[in-house]
């Protein structure tokens, strides 16, 4: 991905983290008074960010009298920087911030909803849902009167354990599964249990926006890992593993959100080995696995893991039953024990009813047939959208699965203007910058083809293109 | 409540907090080198704890060379205590601990389950549940295919807003309500949004055990407020408000868990005024309101609040539908905005299905009739349990509502032994110490009368009494 020039309003988050990072090393005494600090160029390389971002952090450090400048020679630690006397005056800037960038865009009401990566409810077999629900009440007449265990309904974990073993060759037992209220809860709990302020977290660039928000809220130092159509640059990843000793790498290797890219098998194997070697947990988020348009995607990273390095998060909300909010986490007992304790304080267990309905619905023959129909319906919508967009000068790689197109517009497009004019025209999309841990990617957008029916989809795209023409001559 | 003598294993949590507190004030320079520290007696009074707890904290500070002792004259700040040089060497001991004391006991399988404050599923109108569920699917055929908004289903918030206005004279609009996945999530989100390490939190003593765990995990400094049958000592509370400037007071003023006590009306009014005056938020947890055995309880604190001081958490899980996990939070927009953002990262909204089922079930005529039956059934069980326990030398105040008896046993009872022998006999109860922010209350236990049917309840109590006789001659 090409990086744009940083503007003040979009580089805030990352620059704060570099600010924190420098401050912390001074505080720890690793960098002493009058000692020369790493150059802007070095830090930019180390963090894989634009030099302006580092420059901005240094400027603020200078302004706050933590560093000083010697002409043409660089930045130095200010004597009497005050860090040792009262650490409360320099709190971690980034921790405790509860921000949710994606949900802000999702609050916009629009006729042509391309921002939410949701399934069109009409693509679900709604008429048959109540059958399964009735069945659940016949089988478990007291289901509404009882809590589930915190880790999740035993019957559901047994069934999913068999499913994972049969479909993906997981080496697994039901005690290594935790049922959560959707994948958002899973990501949140994993982050809360594993990440303390200043721990390093690798995130794909671009990535799922709420994951950025969650890890930033934990006060993590975020290092971006570029994802391209053919995967990661694993040599570069290895270097970053050496330099940063990250606690975890949150990744979405199959029909990635937002890009739709899929990491090839060989990279999966090597990444799992590297992660084990450098003791970096891999948090594999896998919400789109069943939505493939050609051949099935490669096995999850978890399938290749022999050393307990991978935490596997599988959401079933997106295409099975959004209204149930069921996801599952697979991991080894050492991490599972921590997750279960956190879950007991977070919500004392996912509702029992939802787990039982999901169990009977997901494993029904109808659901499995339905998935086939769903793939066809979504691939038609995707192709229709691509056809409509083919008249533009936008660029994208056609995804082999998932719900989204990740599109690069000309750099000259005034993106803020384009977004606000689109909203005025009752159209929403996700601006690329909120999917980017660096808050750059300003000429990219994510457009979802799964939510609108074919007619609305065509209308909406045509309308979006005409808004585009009006802001970009 | 009478305090027992602290033993090493039970006073751990509180002593750590006092340790943190002293350390922090030294670090901030409020207490300088060679300055005399507050006496053990003073700190014990200030924190409302046993002197041994303070003594233990000072002993560890001394051992870690942060303070020194001058014969007969007390504790002094050690020069060169090292706190200023590297704050990372003395992290907050208490933060980031994900502990869940109650859930550990709940994992014990037992025939005579007196530990979980749950409703007997047979007391719910299970046969009629499926009617309402079918109704929901008729009314909202796509309910499983759609997400709710993050703040909660509009129709449900509208209905609950009317309900609160009509029943409790709340001054409220639907935007001041947030639907959560049970009250545990509500407490967790409130704590995450409002509490940073070393913020002071008031907790009732005794209180709901998971609340202790949640606020401790946030790194709060916990100050206990004694609750007695006739309420709080509000003069003492006012002094503590002055001294500690707490961020919030988490309380359960109606049929309190575990004691069953209810704070009288006059105290409610005065407490709301005091809290407003000292800018302390009141987090009012109100899960048992409808389970009264005589007259209705006084109005919630929220009813008396005119300055946005009260955050009201109302769970409907306990006696309406545990399997749905629905609770609601009422608060003013300044706090609500923070809660909604945190909720969006915690689980992106409570499942839509559960909200719609709850809406139609709770507001049905049948549910309201059913509550009357429930009160009668539970009061019979409570009286039966009290009758069985009347042969013992245990002491308790008969609760006017709720699910629990809070009982004081003779101090000479070997509580650990009693609990483990009970578990061997397939009986569980909650030891008082885990309900106590000070981890004392060692001769108290919480016994729940709501879960077992009448026959099992009688059998279980008789069996418990015989275990008691065997450990305590």
From TrEMBL, chains A, B:
Keywords: Aminotransferase, DNA-binding, Pyridoxal phosphate, Transcription, Transcription regulation, Transferase. Residues 12-80 form the HTH gntR-type domain. Its cofactor is pyridoxal 5'-phosphate. Coiled coil: none annotated. SMART domains: HTH_GNTR. It holds the Pfam family GntR. It comes from the Bacteria. In the C-terminal section; belongs to the class-I pyridoxal-phosphate-dependent aminotransferase family. This is GntR family transcriptional regulator. It comes from Brevibacillus choshinensis.
